[in-house]
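Give me the 3D structure for Biphenyl hydrolase like.
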Amino acid sequence: MPRNLLYSHLSSHLPHFRTSVTSAKVAVNGVQLHYQQTGEGGHAVLLLPGMLGSGETDFGPQLKNLNKKLFTVVAWDPRGYGHSRPPDRDFPADFFERDAKDAVDLLKALKFKKVSLLGWSDGGITALIAAAKYPSYIHKMVIWGANAYVTDEDSMIYEGIRDVSKWSERTRKPLEALYGCSLTVSPGWNAVA
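Predicted structure for Biphenyl hydrolase like (193 residues):
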C-alpha cells in the first residue's frame, strides 16, 4: 500500500480528540494564576516548572505530545512567574508551601478531583510539598532536578548562575522573550535556598 494511502487509511480509523491548548487565568488565593490546558483524558496531570520557568517555557513538548486521549494536561505559571504577573515574584520563607497551596487550589478551581504531578527543579520541590500536605488529592508524581536541602556548594552554584548573560542562548532566549531583556535572578531566591 503506498505511504499516503496507508496514512489516509490509518488516520480515518484513529479516534479524534481535542488537540488545542487553552490559555487562561483564574483567581486563586488573591492572585490571577495563568495556566494552559489540553487533552480530554480522565487522568489530570499538572506540570510544575522550575525557577523562572513557565508552563510554556519548561513544558512545551509535554503540552504538545502527551497523550490527549488519556490525559488532561495543565501547565501553570506560579505566582510572579511567566504570565502570572503581577505580582512580581517574591520569596518569603514559605514560598514553596505557598506555591503548593496555589497549585492544588488552582486544580480544585478547575474542578479536578485528583491529579498527578510532574515537577522540575523548584516545581519538583513544590510537588513534593503538595503531596505531603494534600496526599488524598495527589495520584502519582514524577519529580526531577529537585533538592531536599542546600549545601554551601549549592549556594556557590546559585551565586554563579545569578548572571543571566552567562547562560546558554538556548536557556536564556525563551525566558527573555517571556520576561524581557532585563531578565534577572532575584537575590531573594538565593537567600532562602
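The CA atoms of residues 80 and 86 lie 6 Å apart. Let me know if you want a second pass.
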